[in-house]
Amino acid sequence: MGTKLTAGVLVGALAVVLTSGAAATRVLGQPSVGKGDSAAGRYAQARSLDVGRWLTPPSDKKYSGKQLVAALLAERGADSKGVVVLALPARTSGTITTAPVGWSGTTASSGGARVTMRIDVDVAISSDRLWGPDRQVDGAATRCFVYTIQGAEVTVVRGIRCPPAAEVMKAPQPKPLRGA
């Protein structure tokens, strides 16, 4: 009877370990990737910080929002429609792009220059799994962010609802920054 009891306990323990391992693999294999569209949204949020750094002027001279956008487009090699292609994270395929949506003000005014940028993410994300085959999650997201630039720094970054296409301003010609 002792042998049967020991064998039963071992089989039960093995079943618990395998089930727990499979469940942990499912849970642990996903957080870094997430579910498609939510992961794409997180990529857009992360890239908004890059865009903020690119909008930061080199000095506290007076720059208009339009000048900041034109400088970003020149520095980042925008296409003819003002779209900049951003780098993809490892194990990701697809596209992440940003484009200006609108701008106003100057960096020297009390309200600062305001620049609105749209970030579009359409990616396939691969993840390693401890158990079973690798997984691929597809996702797409569009997010818009308003950057407030005062003096020589971005002081506020705020996510907003993207404006309708009819309200999007035409991108300026790419041009390096010069004091206004």
Structure description:
The chain is an alpha+beta fold. It folds into two domains: 30 residues; 133 residues. The protein is 33% helix and 30% strand. The protein is built from three helices and five strands; from the N terminus they run αααβββββ. A five-stranded antiparallel sheet has the order 1-2-3-4-5. Strand 4 and strand 5 form a beta hairpin. It is elongated, with a radius of gyration of 24 Å. The relative contact order is 0.21. Keywords: Signal.
Please specify the SSE layout and strand pairing:
Elements: H1 2-28, H2 36-55, H3 65-76, E1 84-85, E2 92-104, E3 113-127, E4 135-150, E5 153-160
Antiparallel strand pairs: 1-2, 2-3, 3-4, 4-5
In short:
Keywords: Signal. The protein is α+β, with helices and mostly antiparallel strands and 180 residues long.
Features:
5 strands; five-stranded antiparallel sheet; alpha+beta; 2 domains; signal; 180 residues
- Mean pLDDT reading: 81
Number of helices: 3
Order of helices and strands: HHHEEEEE
Counted up, domains total 2
Shape: elongated
Number of E strands: 5
Q: Strands of the biggest beta sheet: in what spatial order?
A: 1-2-3-4-5
Describe the main β-sheet briefly: 5 strands, antiparallel
What is the C-alpha radius of gyration, as a whole number of Å? 24 Å
Signal peptide: 1-24
Keywords: Signal
